[in-house]
Specification:
The chain is α+β, with helices and mostly antiparallel strands and 490 residues long. It folds into two domains: 22-363, 2-Layer Sandwich (BirA Bifunctional Protein, domain 2); 376-489, Rossmann fold (3-Layer(aba) Sandwich). Helices cover 37% and strands 20% of the residues. The protein has 17 helices and 18 strands. It has helices at residues 22-41, 55-58, 90-99, 144-159, 174-183, 192-202, 205-217, 236-243, 251-254, 262-280, 354-363, 386-398, 412-421, 432-437, 445-452, 458-464, 476-489, and strands spanning 45-46, 52-54, 74-76, 82-85, 108-117, 129-138, 167-173, 220-222, 228-230, 288-290, 304-315, 321-332, 347-353, 376-378, 403-405, 426-429, 439-444, 468-472. The strands form four sheets. The chain has an eight-stranded mixed sheet. A hairpin with a 5-residue loop joins β3 and β4. α1 packs across α4 and α4 crosses α10. It is elongated, with a radius of gyration of 29 Å. One of its GO terms (biological process) is histidyl-tRNA aminoacylation. It is found in: Cytoplasm. Pfam families: HGTP_anticodon, tRNA-synt_His. Residues 30-375 form the Aminoacyl-transfer RNA synthetases class-II family profile domain.
Length: 490
């Protein structure tokens, strides 16, 4: 426990976590509402699973393959069973579908939004808690379900205000990668670790290019800081085969490379089908593109994999201008639900990194630009008349006007400062004189701020009484409504 010098507990936020302000929450709600509308347009239904699952339900599909028993926050309950905070939304969905398999419609189309947790070292842009927004189709073996995922993702990005040309959905197939591994003599259980490292190397293509990936597949790579990453130690012809699937390669050029692999050829045919489906629906290569360099990290993918990439430039922490990069991805995971059942269940899905996508939208000025005002604040000038102030607030709320009564114990100056900090558009003032006259004062706080910049002394301020009107008490709601409408138009 951390304490201060007077033995009080220190207020400190754990590393890798963030507090969210009202503006953050409203912006996130605005974004997720648009995502939800698009998913529902495609016929997907919401479902919610708890943030805690039995650890064995996560199986071997943990986020960090180097630490298969770590990577998640876990604890034991009172009957000594291990529980874990979910690290993604897919494993809980697999458990939910298996547990309710008989009563669910098949295919089962659902979406979920929620927090996920990673027990790993935090760093820049790397958090222990973050939000995902997933959509999945369970029980559809055809790659038409994968094509639909890609089309829905493109539509979602455009619904959020990202223009064509600023994004692309890139599509590959794990079977093509498996075929390349077979052609490179890397098949078989004994070489599983080598394959995993090779996949990780291929996944660095966007970052390091062909030369960098070649080094990672071979002897290893030393970065600008001098740190050395050990390579896969593959032979030259093996490296050449794996490099041949990277870059902007047409599908027919890969056929000879993986012709001996039944699984690889099947993957190419599935990609051709996806391409035919999305093109026939009007999605051009500028929106959905076949790209055999897409890898995706999680091990449970079994077929098509896809990634949503934002193409517009941003400046990174080192001052370099780079593409914004990936904001989501997914793929087919035909083996995940079947772990709980006696039969295999085909499934495909897509996950959006909500926090990262929100950052992109803010960069484009598409999120959080609209100002959300605070409530109208009714000041308490006379505590013996508090029932009168409460009545005003009730009348304003009944008219659909966001309002609150000051609940502190300070005087008028502090109350006005409070209203300012709340970003209140108006303050309502009723002292004893106003009450006797059957009147209230309404102060336009925005206009008052502007006029105060031109007033040199308090005497002039009091004489001018800027941006303040006096109305009959019975006209309070009507006048507040009029003034708020005028502000909105302005």
């Amino acid at each position: 426990m951390s304490t201060t010098s007077d033995n009080k507990t220190a207020a400190r936020l754990p590393r890798g976590l963030v507090d969210r302000t009202a503006d953050d929450i409203r912006a996130m709600d605005e974004m997720t509402s648009k995502i939800r509308q698009t998913y529902e347009l495609y016929g997907f239904e919401p479902v919610e699973t708890p943030i805690i699952e039995y650890t064995d339900a996560l199986g071997k599909f943990l986020p960090d393959q180097d630490r298969p028993n770590e990577g998640v926050f876990s604890f034991q309950d009172d009957d000594e069973q291990w529980l874990s905070l979910r690290y993604d939304l897919t494993a809980p969905l697999a458990r939910y579908v298996a547990e309710n398999y008989e009563r669910l419609p098949k295919p089962y189309r659902s979406f979920r939004a929620g927090w996920v947790f990673r027990n790993e070292k935090p760093g820049p842009g790397r958090f222990r808690q973050f939000m995902q927004f997933d959509a999945d189709t369970v029980g559809a073996p055809s790659v038409s379900a994968d094509a639909e995922m890609c089309m829905m993702m493109a539509d979602t990005l455009e619904a959020l205000g990202i223009a064509r040309g600023d994004y692309v959905i890139r599509v590959n197939n794990r079977k093509v990668l498996d075929g390349a591994m077979e052609a490179a003599r890397l098949a078989g259980d004994t070489l599983a670790g080598v394959r995993l490292n090779a996949l990780r190397a291929l996944d660095k293509f966007d970052k390091f290019g062909l030369e960098g990936v070649s080094l990672l597949l071979g002897p290893g790579r030393r970065d600008e800081s001098g740190d050395f990453t050990k390579g896969c130690a593959l032979e030259g012809d093996q490296i050449a085969i794996l490099l041949s699937i990277l870059g902007d390669q047409p599908l027919h050029s890969l056929a000879d490379t993986i012709a001996a692999s039944v699984r690889g050829v099947e993957g190419i045919e599935e990609l051709k089908t996806i391409e035919e489906l999305v093109r026939s629906a009007g999605y051009g290569e500028d929106r959905i593109k076949i790209d055999t360099s897409v890898v995706r990290g999680l091990e449970y993918y079994t077929g098509p994999v896809f990634e949503a990439e934002l193409l517009f430039p941003v400046t990174n922490e080192d001052g370099q201008v780079v593409r914004f990069g990936s904001v989501g991805g997914g793929g087919r995971y035909d083996g995940l639900v079947g772990r709980f059942l006696k039969e295999d269940v085909p499934a495909t899905g897509f996950s959006i990194g909500v926090s990262r996508l929100a950052s992109a939208l803010k960069t484009l000025g598409k999120l959080g630009a609209k100002r959300t005002r605070g409530p109208v604040v009714v000041l308490v000038m006379d505590k013996s008349a508090i029932a009168s102030y409460q009545t005003m607030v009730a009348e304003l709320r009944a008219a659909g006007i966001r309002a609150e009564m000051y609940l502190g114990s300070s005087g008028m100056k502090a109350q006005m400062k409070y209203a300012d900090r709340r970003d209140a558009p108006l303050a309502i003032i009723e002292g004893s004189n106003e009450r006797e006259a059957g009147e209230v004062q309404i102060k336009d706080l925005d206009l008052g701020k502007e006029m105060s910049k031109e007033i040199a002394d308090n005497e002039t301020w009091r004489a001018s009484r800027p941006a303040q009107v006096t109305v009959k008490r019975a006209d309070l709601v009507a006048e507040v409504s009029r003034m708020l409408a005028a502000m909105a138009e302005g």
